[in-house]
Amino acid sequence: MPRLVISTVGTSLLTNQIDREYENGYYSRLRDTANCSYEEIRKYHEDITDIIQTLKERAEEKLSGDIDDIREASAELNGIYGLYEDQISQSEQDIHWLIASDTAQDKITAEILQSFLSTNGLNISIYTPQGFSTSSNEAFTQGIDELLNWFEDTIPGYQDSDYEVCFNLVGGFKAIQGFINTIGMFYANKIIYIFEGSSSELITIPRLPIKIDTEVIKPVEFALMAQGAWIDLKQLKKVPETLLYIIGDKALLSNWGRLIWNRSKVNFLLQSLLTLEYIKYEGSFVQDFKNIKDKKECLKLQETIVKVAYLLNKFDGDISYLKGDGGVQLETYKNTDIEHFRVTLSLRVSCKFVSGYLCLRYYGTHDHVERSEKIKGR
């Protein structure tokens, strides 16, 4: 069975190259600038650039050694080599991702690892949530939110293709590891750790049989919050506060709320069309919805409609904001009063704004929608 291996990345590959007897100041400088971006280091910490370059060169030299040297050099590599029992050539069918924070040190570390592993035949990429660091609660929370969305967009497709999902948490920052460990219980088939040392035994934690209490989920409100809508707490009675990010009398989904929604939304969004403010469904549209066979397509349509409803609510029913949104891209068919918006590059929804409601008429390919509306293709 092929694997999808997701590894969290820390900076051990750099810090392991410090000569603590003579270069102890290197460690303290790297620690103090751990959350700095490339731009911040270039602007405020020029000495760090030289330190990182020195350690980068040492790391690359260490990675040219034998397997013990390689495993000692990097926690992430220790985990990957442990997973394959030192035979990383066995990974030909596998897909690897490195999860790095949006910091200079972590991105450089990830780039060294990617270069080394790709040279050794691994199919490996890097994912970095924008602004992701532990510099502040806001930066961390936003990064985790973006990471959760990436997991949801990426992992289910591999699971549908019968990949085993493995989270390698041997490396990485402790704060990030704590979250990813919990997230892994929902997404991964197994999570791996390893004790310190190149020959240490791999520790494997299988996925626990976690059951989500879907009774606390309010599908319309959760779907809207997932799009960025602030919902009145009066509409969220009995929803645990751990699932909400609350300011005043309104709330968004917390990291855990987004995780729970991502893992359970298929149970709600495949059943029937949501009842949303500013949205009406014509019988022809309902029939097109019922004709959808692919669950991913169905989810994408529902989430796009929720986004449209959110934007209409946010701007008091002004459809001009739908025209300016890069994802929805509402347009009017030439020489008609019929609009259409984008679901994907090839799929559209035709609609008409009537008496304060956006009435959805047809859904499908360009040809299907235009033919149904009896509009000549443009």
Structure description:
The chain has a six-stranded mixed beta sheet, sandwiched between helices. The protein has a five-stranded mixed beta sheet with strand order 10-14-13-12-11. The protein has 16 helices and 14 strands. The protein folds into two domains: 3-206, Hypothetical protein VC1899 like domain (Restriction endonuclease-like) (Rossmann fold), CATH 3.40.50; 214-372, YaeB-like fold, CATH 3.30.2310.20. The model has no long low-confidence stretch (mean pLDDT 91). It has 378 residues and is of the alpha/beta class.
Biggest β-sheet strands, sense, barrel = 6 strands, mixed
Q: How many helical stretches?
A: 16
Mind telling me the CATH superfamily name of the largest domain?
Answer: Hypothetical protein VC1899 like domain (Restriction endonuclease-like)
CATH class of the largest domain: Alpha Beta
Fraction of residues in H or I helices: 40-55%
Q: What order do the helices and strands follow?
A: EHHHHHHEHEHEHEEHEEEHHEHHHEEEEH
Task: Provide tags for this entry.
14 strands; YaeB-like fold; 2 domains; 16 helices; 18% strand; six-stranded mixed sheet; Rossmann fold
A few lines on this structure:
The chain is an alpha/beta fold.
Set down the secondary structure blueprint.
Elements lengths: L2 E6 L3 H4 L8 H9 L5 H7 L1 H17 L4 H7 L1 H9 L11 E5 L4 H16 L3 E5 L9 H24 L3 E5 L5 H14 L2 E5 L7 E5 L12 H8 L4 E2 L11 E4 L2 E4 L1 H10 L1 H4 L9 E3 L1 H8 L4 H20 L5 H5 L6 E2 L6 E4 L4 E8 L2 E9 H7 L6
Parallel strand pairs: 1-2, 1-4, 2-3, 4-5, 10-14
Antiparallel strand pairs: 5-6, 7-9, 8-9, 11-12, 12-13, 13-14
Helix pairs in contact: 3-4, 4-7, 5-6, 8-9, 8-11
